Amino acid sequence: MTAVSYAPAPRTVSGRTLADVLREDGPLPVARVRAIGLRLLDALVASHHGNLHPGTVLLHDDGRVALLGPAAGGPAAGDLISLGATLFAASGGRPGPLRPVIEDLLTADNPELAGPARAALAAAGH
């Protein structure tokens, strides 16, 4: 009998991490930071990440945003704080109309703030 090992086929990933984008292109426009923030909040609501930072945020060439690394279920307050720090870094420290949302995220002590944070991000800049 021959043993056969099956492994998932490697998936081609087109895009760069947020860390690479910031290093190579510099800070992002506030509108792009806002869009990334909304997508990241959706991802965090779907699963607790536990290690969110620019190096674990994959920006696909087609505009999708993905989290690299572990997922453990439901957002934690620490994820929201990390999101605030990540968005602040993405804006180059100049978040403009996103500043109040980012400040709220940086002081989040309750994972239930994900919903209000999403609403505030959606409304910012409009």
Number of domains: 1
- SSE run: EHHEEHHH
Main pleated sheet: 3 strands, antiparallel
* CATH H-level superfamily: Transferase(Phosphotransferase) domain 1
Broad structural category: mainly alpha
Q: What is the arithmetic mean of pLDDT?
A: 81
Radius of gyration: 16 Å
- Range of helix content: 40-55%
Indicate the CATH topology: Transferase(Phosphotransferase), domain 1
Give the overall form: globular
The total of beta strands comes to: 3
How do the strands of the widest beta sheet line up side by side?
1-2-3
Please supply descriptive tags for the structure shown above.
5 helices; Kinase-like_dom_sf; mainly alpha; Protein kinase domain-containing protein; Transferase(Phosphotransferase), domain 1; globular; 126 residues; three-stranded antiparallel beta sheet
What report would you give on this structure?
The chain has 126 residues and is mostly helical. The protein has one domain: Transferase(Phosphotransferase), domain 1 (Orthogonal Bundle), CATH 1.10.510.10. Helix content is 45%, strand content 8%. It is built from five helices and three strands, in the order βααββααα. The protein has a three-stranded antiparallel beta sheet. Strand 2 and strand 3 form a beta hairpin. Helix 2 packs antiparallel against helix 3, helix 2 packs antiparallel against helix 5 and helix 3 runs antiparallel to helix 4. The longest helix is centred in the first third of the chain and has 17 residues.
